[in-house]
Amino acid sequence: FYKPHLPWYVPKRFFDLYPLDEVVLPVILETDLDDVPDIARRWALTPNDHENVTKAGQWRHAVQGYLAAISYSDAQIGRLLDALDASPAHRDTLVVLWGDNGFHLGEKLHWRKFVLWEEATLVPLVMSGPGLGARRVDTPVGLVDLFPTLFELCGLPHLPDTDGRSLLPLVT
Fold first, then answer.
1. Model-level pTM?
2. b vs e for 83-116, b when ≥16 Cβ sit within 10 Å of the residue's Cβ?
3. I need a labelling partner for 60 at 20 to 30 A (CA). Which of 10, 16, 31, 111 fits?
4. Do 102 and 120 form a contact (C-beta atoms < 8 A)?
5. Is the dihedral of CA 56, 59, 64, 70 positive or negative?
């Protein structure tokens, strides 16, 4: 799935889930970049998306678009999972869903990704299938851990010289 990547073009019904007057903007500190190294300041402000978005009066619209794109993606994933559940393949299919990056919506005066702050580095990771428990895990993991996890779930032998550790102790 490509969304919620830009452009945030999705059907209107997903925008309607987030009326503009109810969209909550991220809290920012105008001095938030005062204590970061010069390179971090340059990453956050080049290009100066936050200034451009706020000058144009589009901050609330942009957050609405991002939320709408996330809801659209969720709906498409739901359609896929419903189809899987209706098929015989559901008994032996592993589903792994993850994102490649988080996204800033004005936090630290930044938009997009391309930085190492929390908003840009946190991603969803959801695993479902035979042998997996149904629970939420708040332990930080790395996406490099997916490879050994999937190998173990599929009953394949561990490959030497690979990075990552199986996540099975967290999800079974």
1. 0.88
2. eeeeeeeeeeeeeeeebeebbbbbbbbbbebebe
3. 31
4. yes
5. positive
Q: How many residues does the chain have?
A: 172
- The tens digit of pLDDT for each residue in 6-44 reads 999 999 999 999 999 999 999 998 898 999 999 989 988
Token pair recorded at residue 96:
């792994």
Q: Compute the Cα dihedral for 74, 79, 82, 88 and give only its sign.
A: negative
Under DSSP, the state recorded for 103 is -
Cα distance between residue 84 and residue 114, in whole Å: 35
CA geometry: angle 83, 85, 86, nearest 5 deg: 65
Distances (CA, A) of 5 to 15, 52, 108, 124: 15, 19, 20, 14
CB 97 within 8 A of CB 124: yes
Q: pLDDT, tens digit, for every residue of 40-97?
A: 899 888 889 999 999 999 999 999 999 999 999 999 999 999 999 999 999 999 999 9
